[in-house]
Amino acid sequence: MPRSGGDAAPREYVARGQWPTGRLRKDAPVSAIYGQEFVNRLLKALEAKGNPSMRSIEREAKVSRRTIERVLAGEVLPDFGALARLEQWLEADLWPGREMHATDGRDGVVDHGRRRRTRLGFVI
């Protein structure tokens, strides 16, 4: 299935290190940036829940094991249904919001080329 905007899988944009903690390329699209943040938030929430098995996640969150595996591997982004069910089950905000936006001094221009602190104090 073609991706929105022709973007590659999120993990394809890792310049250094490994998915999902590696540094993304400067030309990484916002979908890869958000996908990486989502996976890191998901891993943290799963750890807080005691690192449940894939079968438990599938049964309790009602998200297929294969979807979770592919999302964690950076192969795909979650669909809205999976995202909503995971957030509800984990009682956590997983999808990045407005706090991910950082400007480079020009109104509305997002700088994702390097980790930096946003106006709200978040490091991206």
Describe what you observe in this structure.
This protein is mainly alpha-helical and 124 residues long. Helices cover 37% and strands 4% of the residues. It has 4 helices and 2 strands. It has helices at residues 30-48, 54-61, 65-72, 80-90; strands spanning 14-16, 23-24. The protein has a two-stranded antiparallel ribbon. It is globular and about 35 Å long. The chain starts with 13 loop residues before the first strand and ends in a 34-residue tail after the last helix. Mean pLDDT is 85; it is low at 103-111.
For the structure shown, list the relevant keywords.
124 residues, mainly alpha, 37% helix, globular
